[in-house]
Task: structure prediction
Amino acid sequence: MKKNNLPSGFVYLDEVIPTAQYEIRYYSENNFTGARVDGYKAPLAIFSRTAATALKKVSDDLERKGYILRIYDAYRPQKAVNDFINWSQDSSDIKMKQQYYPKLDKRNLFKLGFISKKSGHSRGSTIDLTLADKKTGALVDMGSPYDFFGEISYYNTTLVSSTQHANRKILKDAMSKQGFEPYSKEWWHFTLIKEPYPKQYFNFNVE
Result:
């Protein structure tokens, strides 16, 4: 059940883009911490209205090409980011290491740029997403999974095939066309360049 108590200027993405798939990883235990993350009270994607309007255009463009969006994370409360910081400092907890960061020491994930102590997600206009096939709903092969911490997740890595890189480019080009800026170390991560709250970090729950 949605609380429908969002701050002014925010919307639920499924109301703007009902055709997208929503797999909110930080609400589940299938994320790099192995537990539900603080501040995620429901498996919902919340986004600034400005960014949601731009993302709807991305979705419309891609649907004409046979794709739909799968959204993993949008607005992220600051308390969730603080939860990541606490998790990174507990070196005994390596439950999800094999799946998400097999070659890295979790204490270095901030230094390497995979996690940030202040996240653009908390400003409400940054999103993590991928593509799925419109007909089958199956994920498009991007060569590495969402939130995998390693060089294979860099957009320009040489560790993926030309087909996988071409798939990443389809997503990046569609996002860039509507004013989203990609992040070179994570092929799934984009921020609206003209974001409405460039200096504001929000902390309301996802509910």
Observations:
- The two ends are 8 Å apart (CA to CA).
- The CA atoms of residues 21 and 42 lie 15 Å apart.
- The beta strands are 10-12, 21-22, 46-48, 67-73, 126-133, 180-183, 186-192.
- The chain has a mean pLDDT of 96.
